[in-house]
Amino acid sequence: MFNASLHRLISVFLLIAGAGLMSGCSFMEPNTFNFIVDMPPGFKYKAVVNYIPAPGETCTVARKDNKATVYNYRWWEEYAPSIEIKLKRTINDCPLIMRSVQLKMYSVYGKESGDFGVDKAFVFLRDEKNDGYTLWNKPFDAAGVTLVEGQCQSLFRTSGKPRILRKLLSCKNINAQGVLENQVPTGAYTFEQLAGKTVKLKLTWAAQDRPYFKGFWLKTPEGWRPCTGRWDTPNEELCTTPPKFTDFVMVDGRRCTVYPDCTPRKESD
After folding, report:
1. CB-CB contact of 194 with 29 (8 Å)
2. Strands 88-91 and 244-245
3. What is the pLDDT of residue 17?
4. Does residue 245 contact residue 229 with C-beta atoms inside 8 Å?
5. What pairs with residue 85 in β-bridges?
6. Total-model pTM
7. Where are the domains of the chain?
8. Is 247 exposed, middle or buried (0-12, 13-18, 19+ CB in 10 A)?
């Protein structure tokens, strides 16, 4: 009888302990958030996550020990469009919290290793809610997803003696009111807002490309034409009146006079 009572007592204890563990697990605060992207074809990104001592901590960690976590470091070889990012970590017994995610977006437009444009975006972790960030942040939907949204544009120019066309990337933030701002795409959230949630970087193309240098290309009915003649070189130069035009080389090797449709150069041009 004693053994039976002891067995029942142990069973009850294990049941209570198990319930306590399950209850404790259910209230554990998430320590990560998901980062996903919705970007045009040809885009990839690299993410650099930086950490600092958590609020209220007096400890420090040497930079050599507190190196940034990098995702898609060699984005042209191995690439993961969706990643999971830690909000907190501990190094040398010092509790750290994420400070920022610096994103570099790459837009590939050719086959050579340097045929890409690049721009940045940011996700910041802040201590408390601040009205100064309300224009940046869009609300989380029912699935726990929020958007960092931007519009990107290719800025074209020529480079080098062959006057090869290069495309630089410029991405601007679209705020919570849908207004295009003169800053890179940015989101800033509290720990409570990010933990267990998802941030989606959504980028779209502007309707048209534009020249990198103002006044160096002239828009014609056929397209953009690069000017020359201002400084007596064959290179892309500030337009004159009347305009004089030069040619350029597309990344695929075609010699052209008009962007974006090329209109191959004639000998009489």
Report:
1. no
2. unpaired
3. 44
4. no
5. 33
6. 0.84
7. 29-210, 213-264
8. buried
